[in-house]
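Figure 6 in text form: structure in, sequence out.
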C-alpha cells in the first residue's frame, strides 16, 4: 500500500496493488464531492476506485453516486475505530491502457510499484 501518489496532476490518497490489479482510494473527512471529482481522473488508470469517508453518517446522495459510478464506498466507524464496506467497487472497464502504462512506468521509476 502507498499513500499520496501522483496521478494526472492530482494526488491519490491511497494506492493498493495486488498482482496486476490497482485500487485507488480517496479519503475524506468531509467534502466527499471533491473526492468524486478526483476519482474521475483515476478512471483512466485504476481497476477499482473507492472513496473512504469519516463522516458521522453516510449521506444517501453519496451512496447513490458511488453506486451509479461503480466506485467502492468505505465508512470509518469512529466508535469501533475501523472501516467497513458500504458498497464494494465494481471493476472499472474504462482504463486507458496507454495512460495506465505511463502511470505504472512512473511508479516503478520512483520505486512504488514492484
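Output sequence:
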Amino acid at each position: 500500500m502507498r499513500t499520496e501518489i501522483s496521478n494526472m496532476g492530482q494526488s491519490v490518497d491511497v494506492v493498493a496493488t495486488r498482482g496486476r490489479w490497482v485500487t485507488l482510494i480517496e479519503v475524506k473527512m468531509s467534502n466527499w464531492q471533491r473526492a468524486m471529482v478526483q476519482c474521475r481522473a483515476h478512471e483512466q488508470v485504476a481497476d477499482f476506485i473507492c472513496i473512504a469517508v469519516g463522516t458521522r453518517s453516510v449521506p444517501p446522495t453519496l451512496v447513490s453516486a458511488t453506486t451509479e459510478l461503480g466506485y467502492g464506498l468505505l465508512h470509518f466507524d469512529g466508535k469501533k475505530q475501523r472501516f467497513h464496506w458500504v458498497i464494494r467497487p465494481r471493476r472499472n472497464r474504462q482504463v486507458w491502457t496507454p495512460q495506465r502504462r505511463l502511470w505504472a512506468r512512473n511508479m516503478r521509476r520512483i520505486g512504488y510499484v514492484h
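Caption detail: The chain has a mean pLDDT of 85.
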